[in-house]
Prior knowledge:
The structure is a homodimer.
Chain A (H helix, E strand, L loop, with lengths): L1 E2 L18 E8 L5 H4 L1 E7 L6 E10 L2 H8 L10 E2 L5 E7 L11 E4 L10 E5 L3 E4 L5 H5 L4 H10 L9 E5 L4 H12 L3 E6 L5 H11 L3 E4 H6 L13 E4 L3 H9 L6 E4 L8 E3 L1 H6 L3 E4 L2 H7 L4 H15 L8 E5 L3 H10 L7 E5 L2
Parallel strand pairs in A: 10-11, 10-13, 11-12, 13-14, 14-16, 17-18
Antiparallel strand pairs in A: 1-2, 2-3, 2-5, 4-6, 4-8, 4-18, 6-7, 7-9
Helix pairs in contact in A: 4-5
Amino acid sequence: MMLRQTLPRNTRSQGLVRQMAVMAKSLKYTQYGEPQDVLHLVETQLADPKDKQVLVKILAAPINPADINTIQGKYPVKPKFPAVAGNECVAEVICVGDKVKGLQPGEHVVPLTTGLGTWTTHAVYNEDQLLAVSKNVGLAEAATITVNPCTAYRMLRDFVKLSPGDTVIQNGANSAVGQAVHQLCRAWNLRSVGIVRDRPEIGELKQQLECLGATVVLTEAEVRTTDLFKSGTLKKPKLAFNCVGGKSATEVTRHLDNGGIMVTYGGMSREPVTVATGPLIFKDIAFRGFWMTRWSKENYDAPERLQMFKELCELVEQRKFVAPPHEMVPLDKFKEAASAALTFKGFTGKKYILNMS
Amino acid sequence: MMLRQTLPRNTRSQGLVRQMAVMAKSLKYTQYGEPQDVLHLVETQLADPKDKQVLVKILAAPINPADINTIQGKYPVKPKFPAVAGNECVAEVICVGDKVKGLQPGEHVVPLTTGLGTWTTHAVYNEDQLLAVSKNVGLAEAATITVNPCTAYRMLRDFVKLSPGDTVIQNGANSAVGQAVHQLCRAWNLRSVGIVRDRPEIGELKQQLECLGATVVLTEAEVRTTDLFKSGTLKKPKLAFNCVGGKSATEVTRHLDNGGIMVTYGGMSREPVTVATGPLIFKDIAFRGFWMTRWSKENYDAPERLQMFKELCELVEQRKFVAPPHEMVPLDKFKEAASAALTFKGFTGKKYILNMS
């Protein structure tokens, strides 16, 4: 990218917007397909921000499963072509239109809406699509805050009223959402039981998740025979999170307390959730789903939303909440990063974050 | 049974309770098993009602699936042995204890709680276990009002806010609950789509259910290809009732509107409900269960409960609500009735009502 003109430190405070011409390098696609096939790095000259527009320089933008699925055409959100890929980022405000009131050049921002196209060096967004975040929030945390931590936050808050000491159980406990759940449970004094697939380095993984706040981590085999709940060591969970489906979900359901809810937010096994009639009727178990994109749309301006971002950012600043293990990758290495993200079955491995800072 | 002493018309108004000795003939069991094997007609002398007790003569008591399952030991409610079978009835008050304030001899009552043991000629219950109902409510309707019509009423009221013109869809649409749903939908100006298994007399069954208030009745095959909802003939249902499970439930789910709820209250196919991940997450479909016994326990004294009985009885009195097709059977023919009830797969046939009047 090139900035054809050096920017004054604060254009708005001088009551005018300087003319400039920014060349953005963006990962664009004009048809669905595998990211390495259909994404192309394209240079575009951006117009100056007008009115409520904001020119930002993207600092970091993660590669999320939903981004890949969107590019593949497998996600319910369908972009207009040509589209810039990517939905999350942290960016620095470079320059603002003359009607922008709440943002200053130099501030860090994250997107309040999906589909903005964040895999780019620069972009022009509208002020109401952006939320300012403290620079004390690390780039990796800020770049990944709007999807997975928010999913964990809402699923813990919006389905069952939990009190300190209550138990939450989840499969896919090492997913990005899973890690966020463990950390929020620790911050909110909830017991967090995580279930993961068995693997050679299971001891290391358990330790890693317990460091994040998991009370206990069990393999799929161990959860079948555990007496953690029967023995009273932990209260029976009122809330379960499922991102796997199939047998894994069924096993989790068995441990739910009467009136408990299983919230599905993913289906990594590609198998449906099987719901026995007995628990539905006699134990009043409920099965719900959660999609952050819908919640955000329905609560765009809601005070709960700003409150959520405030709390999450505070936890990050207090070092009580960290981003998942990740690797920063330069934008021009996106093909390797997208391939690597795909080869981790179920995307539970390292998170790749495109680094444009 | 024999009444050893003729009763004064209203013992309470005379400020005293006459001594009497009533021999009750009851269907008792002391172990789980098939009803025809473990039920025995036993005579017991009943003590006079004291304090808040009420002596009743049972007029009619239905044979419900849950009664059979309880006798078989397959139901989550476990009786203390020896137990009198049966849970629903309509009875006539014969005589009341001296602290009974709200019931008069001669009144008709229905039980407010399950497990009272209603397959008997006479019984002594507590006043707070009984609800007076108008004698204008027919015996068959009164005897069967506390379980199936209440299940239909609550499922229509407590899960989704429905407006006149909204659509409800259900499988097992000719079950006792199904028939109640059709009738309540008609009374409340809701569209009621029923799904039934194909059978030789399908035309007759469809007509019968449409007479009760079903807007449309489809076979399992027809529901797979119907364009009733796509074409806009009917609004997409926000609420579905499932008493079958398996593929039948899956087909019903496909038609649910975004944010719709499937409520399971039975599992006649003995197959679980299969919940695809996509609809859970992206369509926000929810899967719940309903058990009248629990609701009644949790809302024993709730105004909503009395209001429900009031509304249902009014509908019966106005001839807008009828009992399912039934056959009155004398108490000493219970073995034949229990066997006949069992041979109707899924209990969707005729309802057998023990008649002691």
